[in-house]
Amino acid sequence: MKEKLLTLSQLCKELSISYATGRNWLRLGKITPTSTESGSALFNTSYIDTLKNEIEKGTNASLKSRRNKKYRSGFELYESYVSKSSPNIGTVSVIVNYIKDNEIEVTEEILLALLFDCAGKLIKDKYKEENGIYCQINYLDVDIDCFAKLSKSHPDLFSSNYTYIPTEDTLGLLYISLSSLKNRKEKGAYYTPTEVVNSLISNLFSEKDIKSKEIIDPCCGTGNFILQLPETVKSENVYANDIDDISVKLARINYALKYDISDRDMVISHITQSDFLIDMKEKKYDIILGNPPWGSEVPYDAFVEKAVKSLKDNGHLSFVLPESILGVKSHKKIREFMMSSCRLSYVEYLGEAFHGVQCPSIILHAQVTKERFTTKGLVVNDGINTFTIDTDRVVSADSLSLKITDQEYALIKKIMDAKNKATLKGNALFGLGIVTGDNKRYISQVKTPDNEPVLKGADIEKYRYNAAENYISFTPEKFQQVAPEHIYRAKEKLLYKFISSDLAFAYDDKGTLSLNSCNILIPQIPGLSIKYVMAVLNSSAAQFVYSKLFGSVKVLRSHLEQIPIPIADDRKQKEIIAYVEKIIKAKKPQKEIEKTLDKKIAELYGLTGDEYQMIKASLK
Question: How far is 455 from 470, CA to CA, in rounded Å?
Answer without folding.
Answer: 7
